[in-house]
Design brief:
mainly alpha
């Protein structure tokens, strides 16, 4: 194991009063994008079921567990990035102070030992909360429980233990975890799995994957230095651009193809036009204007727009007779 990097010049350990803020930053609680799966899953249910006590309790427990599982994943990711030097490369001493503060290990407000303890505590809490959600849920199909366990294990092992993101699986995880965060709560609340639910989960999961691809493009140097084999590291700039373009068009193809196949209503592509237009904007910003970080911010906003559109479609379906897929 490589030795831990030194703190940036001028950075001193934080006083005890700053620990709570440091843990909040470690957990990345301001990054809400995976949590947006909850309203998507909720609105896939029949209207009469959405506000039933069992539904609300299941979603509250699952949502709290999701928060803990993600907190564990990003905490371990920060520890690994601190130790191998990739965070020092990507959030170097010349980075703006606001940005450096998002990495409490680099900023000196937490120690690796504190972050590791936090990560394990969050992982255990997340597992218990998800078990509680399953215990009170109306349905507990085998596939739902297996998928929940897979999401838990892979999230904790993302940059820790098996380090799946260091073994070529980062992009798969970013997509698959998003899919799981829609399908697991939906499966706990629904007796069957519809093609339209799977479609919405796939479109949701594509969001974090796509803005993750732009992040990886920006972080090529640091990731390559520590042997993190992202697509951006493994391919040429042209190959990476082609991969991002292909993944973007794949999401659009799912929207159009689902309507043609009868999985979604015929008007679904029209409802998703704002998302499609923003995807084109992202590609233009990234590869014509050469502003990867702006493309990433645009992709994050587009993911949130996509969530709003998916929720609007689910709300509209019962009001439009004959259009339910």
């Amino acid at each position: 194991m490589s030795s831990e990097v030194k703190l940036p010049a001028g950075v001193r350990p934080a006083p005890a009063a700053a620990k709570v803020r440091a843990y909040v930053r470690l957990a990345k609680l301001d990054i809400i994008d995976y949590y947006l799966a909850l309203p998507v899953a909720l609105l896939l249910l029949a209207p009469a079921q959405r506000l039933s006590p069992g539904t609300v309790l299941t979603l509250v427990l699952f949502g709290l567990g999701e928060l803990c599982v993600i907190a564990a994943s990003v905490a371990f990711d920060d520890v690994t990035g601190y130790r191998d030097g990739s965070d020092a490369a990507n959030y170097g001493p010349d980075a703006p102070r606001r940005r450096l503060a998002r990495k409490p290990l680099l900023a000196g407000t937490l120690t690796p030992t504190e972050a590791i303890r936090f990560g394990w505590a969050a992982a255990v809490a997340g597992a218990l909360l998800w078990a509680g959600a399953a215990a009170v849920a109306p349905h507990r199909s085998a596939w739902t429980l297996v998928l929940a366990a897979l999401c838990l294990v892979t999230a904790v092992q993302y940059s820790w233990g098996l380090k799946i993101s260091y073994r070529g699986w980062q992009e798969v995880f970013l997509f698959g975890f998003g899919v799981g965060m829609v399908l697991v709560p939906y499966g706990l609340l629904s007796s069957s799995l519809s093609g339209f639910a799977v479609l919405q989960a796939v479109l949701f999961g594509a969001g974090p994957m796509l803005f993750g691809l732009y992040s990886n493009t920006h972080d090529i140097e640091g990731d390559a230095r520590v042997g993190r084999p992202t697509v951006a590291v493994l391919t040429s700039p042209r190959g990476n651009a082609a991969f991002i373009t292909a993944m973007t068009f794949a999401q659009v193809a799912c929207v159009v193809g689902s309507a043609l196949a009868g999985v979604a209503p015929w008007w679904f592509p029209l409802a998703m036009l704002p998302m499609i237009a923003l995807r084109g904007t992202e590609l233009d910003i990234a590869f014509r204007r050469r502003d990867i970080l702006l493309a990433r911010r645009t992709a994050i906003r587009n993911h949130r727009v996509t969530v709003v559109l998916l929720c609007a479609v689910s709300l509209a379906l019962p009001l439009l007779p004959g259009t339910t897929p």
